[in-house]
Design brief:
The chain is of the alpha/beta class. The chain has helices at 24-37, 57-70, 87-91, 119-132, 144-154, 178-187, 202-213, 235-248, 256-263; strands spanning 3-6, 41-44, 46-47, 53-54, 74-77, 100-104, 108-110, 113-115, 135-140, 163-168, 193-198, 216-219, 226-228, 231-232. The structure holds (5S)-5-amino-3-OXO-hexanoic acid and zinc ion (ZN).
Length: 277
C-alpha cells in the first residue's frame, strides 16, 4: 500500500500548527521523517520564509533538492496551487522536473471560493507535464471530474490506467462517505490505482476504508492537522498511524521503489538521492 503525505498545503496558516514545514530544509527533514515512518510519496506545496504560500519555481526546486538529499521518497508537486493563482504560476514549478505532479480534473467550489480548472487550464498544465516528463496524479474532488479525465484521455492528453486520488470532504466537493468512495472506485477506468484523501476528521475514516478496499492512502497536514480531537498532529505521526493500522490488516506499505513499480513511473537516474531504508 502506498502512503502519500500531503505535508504542507496552501491554505493552512503557520499559526494553526507548529508542525508545518516552511523552508525547503524543513520540507526535506519532514520528508525524511515521513519516509522513515512509511510514506513513499510526498505531495509538495511551498511557502516563503514568512509562511505565506508561494508559486516561486526557485523555492520548489530548492525543496526538491533538499528532499532528494535526505531520502528516496517520490516527490509530487502541486499544480493546484492556491485559489487565485494563474495557470502559468501553477505550472511553473514543473520545470524542476519532479517525478509526479497533481492535476485537478475539474472546477469545484472550494469553501466560499471557486477552484478553477477549466478544460483549457487542464490542457495547459498537462502540456507542461508532458514537456518536463512529469507523471500526473489525477485529483478527483467531485464525481464529474472522472468524466473530465476520460475526455482528456480521449483527446490523447492523458493515458489510462492512471493513478487517481479522490479528495473527499472539501466544502463544495463530494462528501467523504463510504458510499461516495465505493461509487468512485467502481467508476474508475480499468487498471487505475487509487488513493483517498479525506478532509479534516474524515482523513482517518477514509484511510481505514482505503486500507480495507485495497486502495492507497493520503494523509498529512494539508488535509487535517489533528491526531485526535484537540490534539495537533505532526505529518510523521499521521503517516505512522495509518502504517500501523495497515500492517494489522496485512497490507504492508510500499517503499518508494515498490511504489514506482506499482504506479508505472519511468525509471530515472538517481541524482544524489539517498535510500533511507
Ligand atoms: N489548494 C487547493 C486549492 C493540489 O495540490 O493539487 C488545491 C490543491 C490541489 O491543493
Ligand atoms: Zn495540494
Amino acid at each position: 500500500m502506498i502512503v502519500t503525505v500531503a505535508a504542507v498545503g496552501a491554505e493552512l496558516l503557520p499559526e494553526q500548527t507548529p508542525h508545518l514545514p516552511i523552508t525547503p530544509v524543513q520540507l526535506g527533514e519532514t520528508a525524511a521523517r515521513c519516509r522513515a515512518a512509511g510514506a513513499s510519496i510526498i505531495h509538495v506545496h511551498c511557502r516563503n520564509d514568512d509562511g505565506a504560500n508561494t508559486a516561486d519555481p526557485g523555492r520548489f526546486a530548492a525543496a526538491l533538492a533538499e528532499i532528494g538529499k535526505r531520502s528516496d521518497i517520490i516527490v509530487q508537486f502541486t499544480t493546484g496551487g492556491a485559489v487565485g493563482m494563474t495557470p502559468a504560476e501553477r505550472a511553473a514549478p514543473l520545470a524542476a522536473r519532479p517525478e509526479m505532479a497533481t492535476l485537478t480534473c475539474g472546477t469545484v467550489n472550494f469553501g466560499d471560493d471557486v477552484f478553477e480548472n477549466s478544460f483549457p487550464i487542464m490542457r495547459g498544465i498537462l502540456a507542461e507535464m508532458h514537456r518536463y516528463g512529469v507523471v500526473p496524479e489525477l485529483e478527483i474532488f467531485d464525481a464529474g471530474h472522472l468524466a473530465n479525465a476520460r475526455r482528456l484521455e480521449r483527446e490523447g492528453l492523458l493515458r489510462f490506467p492512471a493513478h487517481v486520488d479522490f479528495v473527499l470532504g472539501v466544502p463544495g466537493g463530494l462528501d467523504a462517505s463510504a458510499r461516495n468512495l465505493s461509487y468512485l472506485v467502481e467508476a474508475l477506468p480499468p487498471g487505475c490505482t487509487w488513493s483517498v484523501a479525506g478532509i479534516g476528521r474524515a482523513q482517518l475514516e477514509m484511510a481505514l476504508l482505503a486500507i480495507a478496499m485495497g486502495g492507497h492512502v493520503r494523509v498529512g497536514l494539508e488535509d487535517n492537522i489533528y491526531y485526535a480531537k484537540g490534539k495537533l498532529a505532526s505529518n510523521e505521526e499521521l503517516v505512522a498511524r495509518v502504517v500501523r493500522i495497515a500492517g494489522e490488516f496485512g497490507r504492508p506499505v510500499a517503499t518508494p521503489e515498490q511504489a514506482r513499480e506499482l504506479l508505472g513511473l519511468p525509471v530515472r537516474a538517481a541524482i544524489g538521492a539517498k535510500d533511507s531504508t
